[in-house]
Amino acid sequence: MERKVIVVTGASSGFGNLAARALARAGDIVYAGMRATQGRNAPRVAELAEFSAAQGVDVRGIEMDVQDQASVEAAVARIAEEQGRLDVVVHNAGHMVLGPAEAFTPEQPAELYDINVLSTQRVNRAALPLMRRAGSGLLVWVASSSTRGGHPPFLAPYFAAKAAMDALAESYAAEVIRYGIDTVIVVPGAYPSGTNHFAHAGLPADAERAAEYDGAYGELREQLAERLAGLFPAGREVDEVAEAIVDVVGRPAGQRPFRVHIDPSRDGSDVVSTVSDRIRSEFYHRIGIADLLPERASR
Question: What are the angstrom distances between the C-alpha of 26 and each of 57, 66, 272?
Fold first, then answer.
Protein backbone atom coordinates (compact mmCIF):
# COMPACT_ATOMS: atom_id res chain seq x y z
CA MET A 1 0.00 0.00 0.00
CA GLU A 2 1.35 3.42 -0.96
CA ARG A 3 2.41 5.63 1.91
CA LYS A 4 0.10 8.57 2.47
CA VAL A 5 1.35 12.14 2.70
CA ILE A 6 -0.24 13.75 5.74
CA VAL A 7 -0.20 17.12 7.45
CA VAL A 8 -1.34 17.45 11.06
CA THR A 9 -2.06 20.95 12.36
CA GLY A 10 -1.29 21.99 15.92
CA ALA A 11 1.19 19.13 16.25
CA SER A 12 3.63 20.57 18.79
CA SER A 13 1.87 18.73 21.63
CA GLY A 14 -1.24 16.83 22.68
CA PHE A 15 -3.45 14.95 20.23
CA GLY A 16 -1.61 16.45 17.26
CA ASN A 17 1.85 15.38 18.34
CA LEU A 18 0.66 11.92 19.32
CA ALA A 19 -1.20 11.51 16.03
CA ALA A 20 1.80 12.64 13.98
CA ARG A 21 4.03 10.05 15.67
CA ALA A 22 1.43 7.28 15.43
CA LEU A 23 0.78 7.94 11.74
CA ALA A 24 4.51 7.87 11.04
CA ARG A 25 4.83 4.56 12.89
CA ALA A 26 2.04 3.25 10.67
CA GLY A 27 4.28 3.96 7.68
CA ASP A 28 3.02 7.29 6.40
CA ILE A 29 4.94 10.47 5.57
CA VAL A 30 3.85 13.02 8.15
CA TYR A 31 4.34 16.77 8.37
CA ALA A 32 3.73 18.02 11.89
CA GLY A 33 2.48 21.57 11.50
CA MET A 34 3.30 24.09 14.22
CA ARG A 35 4.24 27.73 14.61
CA ALA A 36 7.61 29.09 15.77
CA THR A 37 9.67 26.14 14.57
CA GLN A 38 12.77 28.34 14.82
CA GLY A 39 11.73 29.68 18.23
CA ARG A 40 9.84 28.20 21.15
CA ASN A 41 8.91 25.03 19.24
CA ALA A 42 12.42 24.34 17.95
CA PRO A 43 12.84 21.65 20.67
CA ARG A 44 9.66 19.94 19.44
CA VAL A 45 11.04 19.85 15.88
CA ALA A 46 14.28 18.36 17.18
CA GLU A 47 12.38 15.74 19.16
CA LEU A 48 10.49 14.66 16.05
CA ALA A 49 13.75 14.40 14.10
CA GLU A 50 15.22 12.23 16.85
CA PHE A 51 12.06 10.12 16.92
CA SER A 52 12.21 9.63 13.15
CA ALA A 53 15.85 8.54 13.26
CA ALA A 54 15.35 6.19 16.20
CA GLN A 55 12.16 4.59 14.83
CA GLY A 56 13.11 4.58 11.16
CA VAL A 57 9.98 6.55 10.26
CA ASP A 58 9.25 9.83 8.49
CA VAL A 59 7.71 12.62 10.57
CA ARG A 60 9.04 16.14 10.37
CA GLY A 61 8.12 19.48 11.84
CA ILE A 62 7.00 22.16 9.43
CA GLU A 63 6.32 25.84 10.01
CA MET A 64 2.56 26.29 9.82
CA ASP A 65 0.88 29.09 11.72
CA VAL A 66 -2.81 28.30 11.17
CA GLN A 67 -3.72 31.90 11.99
CA ASP A 68 -1.68 33.15 9.02
CA GLN A 69 -2.88 32.31 5.49
CA ALA A 70 0.55 32.96 3.97
CA SER A 71 2.18 30.58 6.45
CA VAL A 72 -0.39 27.88 5.71
CA GLU A 73 -0.01 28.25 1.96
CA ALA A 74 3.78 28.15 2.22
CA ALA A 75 3.61 24.92 4.23
CA VAL A 76 1.25 23.23 1.77
CA ALA A 77 3.35 24.43 -1.17
CA ARG A 78 6.47 22.94 0.43
CA ILE A 79 4.70 19.60 0.98
CA ALA A 80 3.51 19.56 -2.63
CA GLU A 81 7.01 20.39 -3.88
CA GLU A 82 8.67 17.70 -1.78
CA GLN A 83 6.07 14.94 -2.18
CA GLY A 84 4.07 15.85 -5.28
CA ARG A 85 0.77 15.43 -3.45
CA LEU A 86 -1.11 15.78 -0.17
CA ASP A 87 -3.39 12.90 0.77
CA VAL A 88 -4.64 13.69 4.28
CA VAL A 89 -5.24 16.80 6.37
CA VAL A 90 -5.76 16.34 10.10
CA HIS A 91 -7.44 19.47 11.49
CA ASN A 92 -6.23 19.34 15.07
CA ALA A 93 -5.13 22.87 15.98
CA GLY A 94 -7.16 24.29 18.83
CA HIS A 95 -7.15 26.19 22.10
CA MET A 96 -9.28 26.07 25.25
CA VAL A 97 -10.38 28.74 27.74
CA LEU A 98 -11.81 28.46 31.24
CA GLY A 99 -14.00 30.97 33.07
CA PRO A 100 -17.42 32.64 33.22
CA ALA A 101 -18.60 33.45 29.71
CA GLU A 102 -19.54 37.01 30.74
CA ALA A 103 -15.98 37.77 31.82
CA PHE A 104 -14.44 37.21 28.39
CA THR A 105 -14.13 40.31 26.24
CA PRO A 106 -15.73 39.99 22.79
CA GLU A 107 -12.25 39.89 21.28
CA GLN A 108 -11.38 36.71 23.18
CA PRO A 109 -14.08 34.46 21.66
CA ALA A 110 -13.20 35.97 18.29
CA GLU A 111 -9.57 34.93 18.81
CA LEU A 112 -10.67 31.47 19.93
CA TYR A 113 -12.91 31.14 16.88
CA ASP A 114 -9.97 32.11 14.70
CA ILE A 115 -7.80 29.34 16.15
CA ASN A 116 -10.42 26.60 16.29
CA VAL A 117 -12.52 27.36 13.20
CA LEU A 118 -10.95 29.82 10.77
CA SER A 119 -7.71 27.86 10.92
CA THR A 120 -9.47 24.95 9.18
CA GLN A 121 -10.73 27.29 6.47
CA ARG A 122 -7.21 28.56 5.81
CA VAL A 123 -5.83 25.03 5.58
CA ASN A 124 -8.68 23.80 3.37
CA ARG A 125 -8.22 26.68 0.94
CA ALA A 126 -4.57 25.73 0.58
CA ALA A 127 -4.95 21.94 0.55
CA LEU A 128 -8.21 21.18 -1.23
CA PRO A 129 -7.11 22.31 -4.72
CA LEU A 130 -4.44 19.59 -4.59
CA MET A 131 -6.92 16.96 -3.46
CA ARG A 132 -9.62 17.96 -5.93
CA ARG A 133 -7.15 17.75 -8.82
CA ALA A 134 -6.04 14.34 -7.61
CA GLY A 135 -9.63 13.14 -7.22
CA SER A 136 -8.91 11.74 -3.77
CA GLY A 137 -8.09 12.75 -0.22
CA LEU A 138 -9.22 12.75 3.38
CA LEU A 139 -10.12 15.51 5.81
CA VAL A 140 -9.95 14.46 9.47
CA TRP A 141 -11.50 16.95 11.87
CA VAL A 142 -10.61 16.59 15.56
CA ALA A 143 -13.79 17.78 17.26
CA SER A 144 -14.98 17.51 20.86
CA SER A 145 -17.71 15.56 22.62
CA SER A 146 -18.57 18.85 24.33
CA THR A 147 -20.42 20.10 21.25
CA ARG A 148 -23.24 17.59 21.76
CA GLY A 149 -22.64 15.84 25.07
CA GLY A 150 -23.38 16.92 28.62
CA HIS A 151 -20.98 19.83 28.57
CA PRO A 152 -20.35 21.63 31.88
CA PRO A 153 -20.31 25.42 32.38
CA PHE A 154 -17.32 27.80 32.27
CA LEU A 155 -16.03 26.55 28.93
CA ALA A 156 -18.56 28.36 26.75
CA PRO A 157 -16.27 30.11 24.21
CA TYR A 158 -14.39 26.86 23.57
CA PHE A 159 -17.57 24.82 23.23
CA ALA A 160 -19.08 27.38 20.87
CA ALA A 161 -16.00 27.33 18.65
CA LYS A 162 -15.87 23.54 18.55
CA ALA A 163 -19.57 23.39 17.68
CA ALA A 164 -18.94 25.77 14.79
CA MET A 165 -16.08 23.62 13.55
CA ASP A 166 -18.28 20.52 13.70
CA ALA A 167 -20.98 22.24 11.64
CA LEU A 168 -18.40 23.40 9.11
CA ALA A 169 -17.05 19.85 8.80
CA GLU A 170 -20.52 18.48 8.06
CA SER A 171 -21.06 20.96 5.23
CA TYR A 172 -17.59 20.43 3.80
CA ALA A 173 -18.21 16.67 3.77
CA ALA A 174 -21.08 17.08 1.30
CA GLU A 175 -19.22 19.63 -0.81
CA VAL A 176 -16.06 17.56 -1.40
CA ILE A 177 -17.38 13.99 -1.60
CA ARG A 178 -17.96 14.21 -5.37
CA TYR A 179 -14.24 14.91 -5.73
CA GLY A 180 -13.44 11.59 -4.04
CA ILE A 181 -12.51 13.31 -0.77
CA ASP A 182 -13.61 11.57 2.43
CA THR A 183 -14.48 13.29 5.70
CA VAL A 184 -14.09 11.82 9.19
CA ILE A 185 -14.95 13.71 12.37
CA VAL A 186 -13.00 12.28 15.31
CA VAL A 187 -14.72 13.13 18.59
CA PRO A 188 -12.56 12.83 21.72
CA GLY A 189 -14.02 13.18 25.18
CA ALA A 190 -12.45 15.19 28.01
CA TYR A 191 -9.09 13.57 28.78
CA PRO A 192 -7.87 14.85 32.16
CA SER A 193 -4.21 14.17 31.33
CA GLY A 194 -1.98 13.60 28.33
CA THR A 195 -2.67 16.94 26.65
CA ASN A 196 -2.06 20.60 27.50
CA HIS A 197 -5.69 21.63 27.04
CA PHE A 198 -6.44 22.32 30.68
CA ALA A 199 -2.89 23.29 31.67
CA HIS A 200 -2.62 25.93 28.94
CA ALA A 201 -6.24 27.08 28.96
CA GLY A 202 -6.80 30.81 28.61
CA LEU A 203 -8.56 32.90 31.25
CA PRO A 204 -11.02 35.80 31.00
CA ALA A 205 -9.40 39.16 30.35
CA ASP A 206 -11.90 40.82 32.68
CA ALA A 207 -10.64 39.37 35.97
CA GLU A 208 -12.83 41.70 38.02
CA ARG A 209 -15.98 40.44 36.27
CA ALA A 210 -14.81 36.84 36.69
CA ALA A 211 -14.31 37.39 40.42
CA GLU A 212 -17.96 38.42 40.77
CA TYR A 213 -18.88 34.80 40.08
CA ASP A 214 -16.77 33.48 42.96
CA GLY A 215 -19.50 33.89 45.56
CA ALA A 216 -22.02 31.68 43.77
CA TYR A 217 -19.72 29.46 41.72
CA GLY A 218 -16.22 29.66 43.17
CA GLU A 219 -16.17 26.18 44.65
CA LEU A 220 -17.66 24.63 41.52
CA ARG A 221 -15.10 26.31 39.30
CA GLU A 222 -12.26 25.04 41.47
CA GLN A 223 -13.62 21.51 41.44
CA LEU A 224 -14.65 21.30 37.79
CA ALA A 225 -11.50 19.61 36.48
CA GLU A 226 -11.54 17.21 39.42
CA ARG A 227 -15.18 16.31 38.79
CA LEU A 228 -14.48 15.63 35.13
CA ALA A 229 -11.48 13.50 36.05
CA GLY A 230 -13.68 11.55 38.44
CA LEU A 231 -15.78 10.31 35.52
CA PHE A 232 -12.74 9.01 33.69
CA PRO A 233 -12.28 5.23 33.93
CA ALA A 234 -8.94 3.71 34.85
CA GLY A 235 -6.78 2.24 32.12
CA ARG A 236 -7.75 4.65 29.35
CA GLU A 237 -5.01 6.82 27.84
CA VAL A 238 -4.96 9.76 25.46
CA ASP A 239 -2.96 7.71 22.93
CA GLU A 240 -6.19 6.00 21.89
CA VAL A 241 -7.29 9.18 20.12
CA ALA A 242 -4.15 9.04 17.98
CA GLU A 243 -4.76 5.36 17.27
CA ALA A 244 -8.33 6.16 16.16
CA ILE A 245 -6.92 8.66 13.68
CA VAL A 246 -4.45 6.05 12.39
CA ASP A 247 -7.33 3.60 11.99
CA VAL A 248 -9.51 5.90 9.86
CA VAL A 249 -6.57 7.06 7.74
CA GLY A 250 -5.65 3.45 7.03
CA ARG A 251 -9.10 2.41 5.88
CA PRO A 252 -10.00 2.22 2.17
CA ALA A 253 -11.39 5.37 0.59
CA GLY A 254 -15.17 5.54 0.70
CA GLN A 255 -15.35 3.01 3.54
CA ARG A 256 -14.46 5.24 6.46
CA PRO A 257 -16.93 6.11 9.24
CA PHE A 258 -18.21 9.65 9.11
CA ARG A 259 -17.86 10.17 12.86
CA VAL A 260 -15.81 8.29 15.45
CA HIS A 261 -16.26 8.81 19.19
CA ILE A 262 -13.48 8.14 21.70
CA ASP A 263 -15.13 9.19 24.94
CA PRO A 264 -14.25 7.12 28.03
CA SER A 265 -16.41 9.35 30.26
CA ARG A 266 -19.49 8.68 28.09
CA ASP A 267 -21.04 12.14 28.18
CA GLY A 268 -23.72 11.17 25.65
CA SER A 269 -22.27 12.87 22.60
CA ASP A 270 -22.36 9.65 20.59
CA VAL A 271 -26.09 9.28 21.19
CA VAL A 272 -26.87 12.83 20.07
CA SER A 273 -24.60 12.54 17.03
CA THR A 274 -26.23 9.31 15.93
CA VAL A 275 -29.65 10.97 15.96
CA SER A 276 -28.35 14.12 14.29
CA ASP A 277 -26.58 12.21 11.53
CA ARG A 278 -29.68 10.08 10.92
CA ILE A 279 -31.88 13.17 10.61
CA ARG A 280 -29.44 14.78 8.18
CA SER A 281 -29.35 11.56 6.16
CA GLU A 282 -33.14 11.42 5.97
CA PHE A 283 -33.30 15.06 4.88
CA TYR A 284 -30.69 14.51 2.16
CA HIS A 285 -32.75 11.60 0.85
CA ARG A 286 -35.91 13.75 0.86
CA ILE A 287 -34.33 16.48 -1.28
CA GLY A 288 -32.58 14.04 -3.62
CA ILE A 289 -28.93 14.53 -2.66
CA ALA A 290 -28.27 11.23 -0.90
CA ASP A 291 -25.15 10.73 -3.01
CA LEU A 292 -23.50 13.45 -0.89
CA LEU A 293 -23.70 11.27 2.22
CA PRO A 294 -20.82 9.01 3.31
CA GLU A 295 -21.53 5.31 3.07
CA ARG A 296 -21.03 4.78 6.78
CA ALA A 297 -22.55 6.78 9.63
CA SER A 298 -21.43 7.42 13.20
CA ARG A 299 -19.98 4.73 15.38
Answer: 9, 26, 32
